[in-house]
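Troubleshooting log. The previous structure file for this entry was overwritten by mistake, so regenerating from the original sequence record. Sequence copied from the archived sheet and checked twice against the printout by T.R.
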Amino acid sequence: MIKINKKGVSAVVGTVVMVALVIGLTAIIWTVVTGVVEDELDAATSCLGNYDKITLNDRYTCDNSTLQNLFYFSISSKINTTEIIVSVSGEREVKSFRIDGTSSYSYVRNFADADFDQALTLPRENQGKSYVIDTSEGSLFGISEIDTIEIAPIIQGEQCDISDSILQIDDCRVFI
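Regenerated output below.
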């Protein structure tokens, strides 16, 4: 009769079980990590490559506060976006607002609209849109002279970094 070494079989079975456990745990961890990384990459790539696609138009951005207490700015877009965050600053204060097609403010209007409190519309792909800010003392805006304007798009639900800014605003009388 042939004698089987049960101790040797037990070590082989234990090694196979350990290898199977390691492979199983590796597969589970790989699946979880891959899902998280793909989600983060999708969010990051929505802004990637779109840095210079939404810009401020220098030609149509100017301050007319000395005559009419109005500040004009224009945004050009080469892509579709769901929102644009505009941030303007004066000597001591910074104000931000959203342009999303539904939000309205008592101190900002579309250039073509006569009244404030109208929904601010976004520029479409390959188009531009101009806006007016009331900088008068009585408006809720509160910044009498705007020094800087910055814009940051929101693409596919992700807020991107500042895509453009103008640090020195010209007086509108220069363009007349």
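The first strand starts at residue 54 and ends at 56. Archived copy saved in two places this time.
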